[in-house]
């Protein structure tokens, strides 16, 4: 008798679980997904050069080289001597380091020419890019844009 009661309880639990889970099921279809009209990625990456301007960039300093050089010079100077001699060495190191740091920064930021290239893209967009070289490109030439760099097409 006990066995049949136990089996009856299991059957009841199983039937209840099926009823609950069946109530969770949905017969509705998912909503239709709509996408905006596709734009042509090919058209967006090709265009024609409209104009080319030579732009002088670089030159000058921000002062970061002088500050960094001054700090390093002061630290090195502070390692020399003691008392007023140490103070004088610290000041001399700071001044010398600032001069050297400024010169290094100035040398790294030499002024040079770059090219500002205006391109009318095939999709109608207008892009202006700056490059260090022209690679034979000229006004009216067909170009391809890859990772913000123009190439002859």
TrEMBL record:
Annotated signal sequence range: 1-31
State the coiled-coil residue ranges: none
One GO cellular-component annotation of the UniProt record comes to: outer membrane
Localization: Membrane
What keywords were assigned to this record?
Answer: Membrane, Signal
Report the InterPro entries cross-referenced here: Bact_OM_lipoprot/Surf_antigen, Gly_zipper_2TM_dom
- UniProt organism field: Rugamonas apoptosis
The record's Pfam families line, in alphabetical order, gives:
Rick_17kDa_Anti
Instruction: Identify this protein by name.
Output: Glycine zipper 2TM domain-containing protein
Provide the Glycine zipper 2TM domain boundaries. Answer: 64-105
Keyword Membrane in record: yes
**Where is this protein chiefly located?**
membrane
